[in-house]
């Protein structure tokens, strides 16, 4: 089973709203990722959590706030977003084999976010 | 710097063979991945190469030459459902960061 689930599938929000995206995996993976993908572009890494600790923040604006409550869950809290933040937000997970560091990332179906 | 190049678009005919090339220049190398992504969907893992040579998996094969910074994805017996974007991605050394190429949009015609 290589399933990563994300909710909601679609989200429309105003610039003053606060919302959260959720991601879940039950593969025992210890690394989880948030990516942002605009149309016809490759995914852009936003955050990486390794063993529930934030290991990479790709200089993402503070209106995006990640949270990893436990090893299976990853949230992305959204506040005061801009229309240009509209995109597909992808979650991924991997085993995080620290000795080898060649583990495959498996992606969830994504949340399509529209900011009005 | 980090640079991964792929052709932007390719077309092919159902039943044919197509090769999608990827060249990379990255600071450190710890493996190259190919993903398939249908429009509006998540990337799906296809293959992984870390040593030179060819990895075959059904209709799909992936090749790597580390000395040349070069990989290709070979798709045989093309089907209409193979119409998708194909993303080449490189894992740098001692990092959790996967660097993606711009992707190749493949269109398969009857």
Descriptive notes:
The complex is a heterodimer of chains A (116) and B (110). Chain A is mainly beta and 116 residues long. Chain A is 0% helix and 55% strand. Chain A has strands spanning 4-7, 10-13, 18-25, 31-37, 44-50, 53-57, 64-70, 73-79, 87-94, 106-107, 111-115. In chain A, the strands form 2 sheets. In chain A, strands 2, 4, 5, 6, 9, 10 and 11 form a 7-stranded mixed beta sheet that branches. The N and C termini of chain A lie far apart (37 Å). By secondary structure, chain B is mostly beta strands. In chain B, 0% of the residues lie in helices and 56% in strands. Chain B contains no helices and 11 strands. In chain B, strands 2, 4, 5, 9, 10 and 11 form a 6-stranded mixed beta sheet that branches. A 5-stranded antiparallel beta sheet of chain B has the order 1-3-8-7-6, with no helix packed on it. In chain B, strand 6 (53-57) and strand 7 form a beta hairpin. The termini of chain B are far apart. Chain A binds chain B through residues 2, 4, 31, 33, 40-45, 48, 50, 55-56, 88, 90, 94, 96, 101-102, 104-110, 112, and chain B through 30-31, 33, 35, 40-45, 48, 50, 87, 89, 91, 93-98, 100-103, 105.
Query: Uncertain runs of chain B with pLDDT below 50, 5 residues or more?
Result: none
Order of helices and strands of chain B: EEEEEEEEEEE
| Mean pLDDT over all positions of chain B | 93
Output the structural class of chain A. Answer: mainly beta
User: For the largest interface in this structure, which chains are involved and how many residues does each contribute?
Assistant: A-B, 28 and 26 residues
Quaternary state of the chains: heterodimer
Radius of gyration of chain B: 13 Å
Q: Strand portion of chain A, in percent?
A: over 45%
Total helical segments of chain B: 0
Number of helices, counting only DSSP H or I runs of 4 residues or more of chain A: 0
Biggest pleated-sheet summary of chain B: 6 strands, mixed
First and last CA, distance of chain B? 41 Å
Helix content of chain B: under 10%
Instruction: Name the overall outline of chain A.
Output: globular
Shape assignment of chain B: globular
Sketch the major β-sheet of chain A.
Answer: 7 strands, mixed
Enumerate the spans of chain A where pLDDT stays under 50 for 5 or more consecutive residues.
none
Beta strand count of chain A:
11
The amount of helix of chain A comes to: under 10%
Question: In terms of structural class, how would the helical and strand content of chain B be classed?
Answer: mainly beta
């Amino acid at each position: 089973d290589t399933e990563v689930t994300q909710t909601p599938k679609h989200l429309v929000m105003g610039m003053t709203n606060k919302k959260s995206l959720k991601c879940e995996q039950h593969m025992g993976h210890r690394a989880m990722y948030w990516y942002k993908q605009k149309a016809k572009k490759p995914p852009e890494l936003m955050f990486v959590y390794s063993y529930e600790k934030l290991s990479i923040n790709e200089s993402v604006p503070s209106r995006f706030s990640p949270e990893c409550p436990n090893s299976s869950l990853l949230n992305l809290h959204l506040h005061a977003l801009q229309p240009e933040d509209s995109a597909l937000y992808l979650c991924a997970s991997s085993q995080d084999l620290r000795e080898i560091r060649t583990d495959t990332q498996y992606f969830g179906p994504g949340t399509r976010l529209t900011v009005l | 710097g980090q640079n991964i190049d792929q052709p932007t678009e390719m077309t092919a005919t159902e039943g044919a063979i197509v090769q999608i090339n990827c060249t990379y220049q990255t600071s450190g190398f710890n493996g190259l991945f190919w993903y398939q992504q249908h429009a509006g969907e998540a990337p799906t893992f296809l293959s992984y190469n870390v040593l030179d040579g060819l990895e075959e998996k059904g209709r799909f094969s992936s090749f790597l030459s580390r000395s040349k910074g070069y990989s290709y994805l070979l798709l045989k017996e093309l089907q209409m459902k193979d119409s998708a974007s194909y993303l080449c991605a490189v894992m740098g050394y001692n990092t959790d960061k996967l660097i993606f190429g711009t992707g190749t949009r493949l269109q398969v015609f009857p």
